[in-house]
UniProtKB/TrEMBL annotation:
Keywords: FAD, Flavoprotein, Oxidoreductase. Residues 5-320 form the FAD/NAD(P)-binding domain. This is NADH dehydrogenase. InterPro entries: FAD/NAD-bd_sf, FAD/NAD-binding_dom, NADH-Q_oxidoreductase. One of its GO terms (molecular function) is NAD(P)H dehydrogenase (quinone) activity. Its cofactor is FAD. GO terms for biological process: aerobic electron transport chain. Pfam families: Pyr_redox_2 (PF07992). SUPFAM superfamilies: FAD/NAD(P)-binding domain. Belongs to the NADH dehydrogenase family.
Amino acid sequence: MATPRIVILGAGYGGLMAATTLMRTLEDGEADVWLINKHDYHYMTTHLHEPAAGTAADEKVRVPLRDVLDFDRVHFRQGTVKRFDPAGRIVELEGGETIPFDYLVVALGSEPETFGIEGLREHAFAIRSLNSVRVIREHIEYMFSLYRARGEDPAYTTIVVGGAGFTGIEFVTELAERLPRLARAYDVPEEAVRLVNVEAAPTILPGFDPSLVAYAEAKLREKGIEVHTNTPIKACTPEGVVLQGDREIRAKTVVWTGGVRGNRIVEASGLEVIRGRVKVDPYLRAPGYDHVFVVGDSAVVFGEDGRPYPPTAQIAVQEGRAAALNLAAILRGTPMQPFKPNIQGTLASLGRWEGIGIVGKRRFYGLIASLLKRGSDLRYLWQLGGMPIVLKKIRYFFA
Ligand code: FAD
Ligand code: NAD
């Protein structure tokens, strides 16, 4: 009998954890494991706001795949998935190459949800990948450089961030620490610099613990960030944003952090989705396709309270590992295990040495929260590639 082929799409949190788990779990000859990803590196999406703001090097978030995978045990193919056919068991890459599979793990992550808001796709940036955040960082610098050259128009040094969920808050607090340095470097008076965070809901971080929200609000004020709550963005133009009530904020830089939906490729490939995410069965398989597992932001799992778990790296990692162990169980004819997430808490940064978080039932503020977040990042790196990768990266986490 031919060796079964497992193909994993995406080397983010879910896909890479599935690949490393299969690499360590399967014996030689049990399966051929393939991993397909756009880049030959993994990026830590959870830190993308830092290179976006220009406060951390790209190297902090980039993990070369060869540092965590044995390419003799996992065949890596760099390429962009165009579509996959779950029934015909074929993946098609941009350029036309097709790769057949017996089992598939879909881990293609998410994309920005723009809710059909006019002009957002065309005129706003998104924190999505290492390549996308480099553009944000360079664009902000370029706009600062134009301030003097273009008649000292403050639109060049105004930055609007749409959405005050965790991504928006982590980005604005990080950027607030860099802007004074940027202003000095480009000869821009500090009073010409505006950093504006616009949120549709009545508070920032809607639904999060009220005392931690209050702490974050105070930090945003301290850092000079203008916060507009109860203020949905209605449109985005080359000149800035239009708010509900037709008020405008002129800004040459708009970054949209207003939410995410599953990767459109998943929907286009015929799987049933809710906001682009597949409602998987208890073993993380797509309905109707017992040989197709879906993990991370491409999947949605409902808790006992009937509410979906939010799309987080924490869950993606656990799902990636669980899907890999269930695949090993299928190959060995042993029972699969239903997926049970272990939610340890939430930790978010508010700049370099500040943060907020809940772990178990305990709330954490300031430096302690920031250190706990660094610890959890290093733990993730340890899970991926052990001590060598931790030693390679640790200096970036305490720079
Ligand atoms: P991803 O990690 O996004 O990986 C998807 C992979 O698929 C990528 O490698 C991508 O290149 C690849 N890919 C996509 N399309 C294709 C294609 N067509 N062909 C080939 N490859 C493709 N969550 C937390 O739990 N804690 C945090 O602190 C946290 N912080 C965050 C901070 C920011 C700024 C952001 C944006 C998100 C944060 N999140 C956090 C959420 C978390 O990053 C996501 O939930 C997590 O990345 C999802 O993992 P994933 O494997 O589904 O997708
Ligand atoms: P989100 O959906 O959590 O937040 C988006 C925010 O944008 C919401 O507050 C929403 O009210 C607001 N919004 C939507 N439409 C708007 C409009 N028209 N005008 C103004 N505001 C608008 O999205 P996110 O922050 O990108 O987070 C995505 C996922 O990643 C979440 O599950 C989040 O928990 C996770 N994440 C976690 C961390 C962390 O744990 N540190 C950090 C970043 C992201």
